[in-house]
Amino acid sequence: MDYSGYETYDFDSVSAFNLSTGYKERSYKMHWHSYGEIMLVGPGDTNIYKVNQNVYELVPGDLVLIWPMEMHAVIDADREEALVIQFSNAFMNSLFDLRRIMHFYRNLHVVCINAHPELAAKLGLIAYKMKDIFFSDSADKELRCCMLLMELMLTLDRHRGEFAPELSEEVTYGYTDDIMRRMMSVTDYIKNNLTSDDLSQASMAEMAGISKDYFSRIFKNVTGMNYSKWLNLIRLEKATELLTHDDRTLTEIAMLSGFQSIPSFNRVFRSEKGMTPSEYRALFAGNDTGNKTDQII
């Protein structure tokens, strides 16, 4: 597949939060970026979006969730009144609860107003509050928008039971602060030690001071996925960072990200990204990102 037409953007030069609207063109080609997006679908009978390899035909009031590093495009949709909310991945990773929510919903890309009317209405209301503040003359508008972003994520999390059957087999609440601190300590250790000889679930449970079965259950409930899948995604996050900002070989990047072999690296990468690591690197290298942040989507 030819990825030369795809585009990449970097959010770091903008801010922790951005919001845009008013684009007259009805389509935007396949691209990716290191920040996340939430799009509130605009009016009209035709609103078609693509995220990774899935195409969604949506209606006004639906929301599209695009997590950092995901390929996406607007195939044919109203972009003049649609809202595009953009948030820094660094901001999301700064708080454990935001990381937890983002990980739980990683496989969710649309919130449909027909299927989830109460939730979609609440999220839409928050989005329009963001718009009013963002386009005001308020000196603290970024801070206030980030607070609303946290409210939006918290609202999404409060409705997680509606998505539990498709995202997680079991939802359990009420973990103590001590348990959550232990889990946060373990996940931070993993992210900073991806080349460790032993990141097995048993070892991490021992580090947390709890049984392996209890660790497994908590991990699934907190992140929305099992430990091995989460670990592969964290390794992919490290690999994509190196692929876009480092000249090391693919073998070196695979090893620095914690993968034990190139075949394993390629298999996991293609499964999650829909392309090989070399294609992903070529996609980034083939685009000049220097002056494109004023037209991001």
Question: How would you sum up this structure, described in words?
Answer:
The protein is of the alpha+beta class and 297 residues long. 47% of the residues lie in helices and 14% in strands. It has two domains: 7-167, Jelly Rolls; 177-285, Orthogonal Bundle (Arc Repressor Mutant, subunit A). The chain has helices spanning 89-92, 96-104, 117-134, 141-158, 160-167, 177-192, 201-208, 212-223, 227-245, 250-256, 262-273, 277-285; strands at 7-9, 17-20, 28-33, 36-40, 48-51, 54-57, 63-66, 72-76, 83-87, 110-111. A five-stranded mixed sheet has the order 1-3-8-5-6, with no helix packed on it. Strand 5 (48-51) and strand 6 form a beta hairpin. Helix 9 packs across helix 10. The longest helix has 19 residues, at 227-245. Mean pLDDT is 84; it is low at 1-13, 168-173 and 288-297.
Short description:
47% of the residues lie in helices and 14% in strands.
Question: How many β-strand runs?
Answer: 10
Provide the succession of SSEs: EEEEEEEEEHHEHHHHHHHHHH
* Beginning-to-end CA distance, first to last residue: 23 Å
List the strand order in the largest sheet. 1-3-8-5-6
Main sheet: strands, sense, barrel? 5 strands, mixed
Give unreliable regions as ranges: 1-13, 168-173, 288-297
Structural class: alpha+beta
Tally of distinct domains? 2
Features:
10 strands, Arc Repressor Mutant, subunit A, globular, 47% helix, 297 residues, 2 domains, Jelly Rolls
List the helices and strands and how they pair.
Blueprint: E1 7-9, E2 17-20, E3 28-33, E4 36-40, E5 48-51, E6 54-57, E7 63-66, E8 72-76, E9 83-87, H1 89-92, H2 96-104, E10 110-111, H3 117-134, H4 141-158, H5 160-167, H6 177-192, H7 201-208, H8 212-223, H9 227-245, H10 250-256, H11 262-273, H12 277-285
Parallel strand pairs: 1-3
Antiparallel strand pairs: 2-9, 3-8, 4-7, 4-9, 5-6, 5-8, 7-10
